Amino acid sequence: METTSTGSSRQRSSVATIDLDALDCTICYNPLQPPVFQCTVGHVICSSCHGKLADTSRCHMCNRDGGYRRCVAVDHILYAITVPCPNAAHGCAARTPYHDSHGHAAGCPHAPCFCPEPGCGFAAGATAALLAHFTGTHGWPATVMWRGRAAVGIPLQEGKHVLSLLDADGRGSHLFLLNVAQAGEAGLVGTVLAVEAAAHGHGDAARFECKVSFDRRGTGWRQSSTFGVRSTNLSGGLPADGFAFVAPNPPPAAATAASVTVTLFDISGEPGPPGNALRPVLPRSRRSRTRLSAQQPATTAAAVLLR
């Protein structure tokens, strides 16, 4: 890995090339972080590895006596050498010290999300670009949802459906993907995913809950499922597990396609502008439960609890 830096004002025409591997610890091979220690010959190690050495009286590489001492000069060099964010192609203009580049990338707001279509390879750091790709390139239907009115009816059919959640002023968009797949005689299985970079710092904690309500008139089948919405940047494609609701296959003579009502609940606890909040979160006693009302065997209920 290499980077370049210009010299002083008298030498702006010269460019120095630096092999960044030289700035890695000689024990753990991670980027050196101040404070740095070096032996009498000059072999350097990070402070973490220095604290783990069984014998600090001699160098681990050259075996010279004399132990290690702080190397302030290398500390200054480490702070001076900066590298561009790996998300520069997606709009990030930040430059960070080499030893802290991973820390910035973990929280970079320009981290990309990906297209889950096999072989596509599209990635974007902006929700609008990803939405345009889903609808324009792949033709996936899309529905706009508004905070305060975050409940929509969607045709229940196999495939992908994009949900774009907007604030009342049209900003603050969140992107969701409703994925429905065929599961043979069990019917249709589906889930709702929040498409966002893992860089937002929310970890695995769900920021949204989703309620999917299904009512097929004429069959007596009614279902309501509430589940935490998994966040993913789709870098590995669509999750192979985690289906949150099941709906029966339509009767052969069905004249119209069935539909589901999808409602989103913001459970992040983050304050927002008045009037832009989603509908209130369901009481805890009603969460993560699936209710059925139909002439179905008792064993059918277990299949609906696929998560």
Automatic annotation (TrEMBL):
Ranges for region Disordered: 269-307
Listed CDD domains: RING-HC_SIAHs (cd16571)
Transmembrane segments: none
Biological process (GO), any one: protein ubiquitination
GO MF entry, a single one: zinc ion binding
Keyword Transcription regulation: no
An annotated GO cellular component: cytoplasm
Xref: Pfam families: Sina_RING, Sina_ZnF
Domain SIAH-type: 80-139
Organism: Oryza rufipogon (Brownbeard rice)
Membership in a protein family: Belongs to the SINA (Seven in absentia) family.
Designated name of the protein: RING-type E3 ubiquitin transferase
Lineage, uppermost ranks: Eukaryota, Viridiplantae, Streptophyta, Embryophyta, Tracheophyta
Pathway membership, UniProt: Protein modification; protein ubiquitination
EC number: 2.3.2.27
Keyword line: Metal-binding, Transferase, Ubl conjugation pathway, Zinc, Zinc-finger
Chemical reaction(s) catalysed: S-ubiquitinyl-[E2 ubiquitin-conjugating enzyme]-L-cysteine + [acceptor protein]-L-lysine = [E2 ubiquitin-conjugating enzyme]-L-cysteine + N(6)-ubiquitinyl-[acceptor protein]-L-lysine
Top-rank taxon, per record: Eukaryota
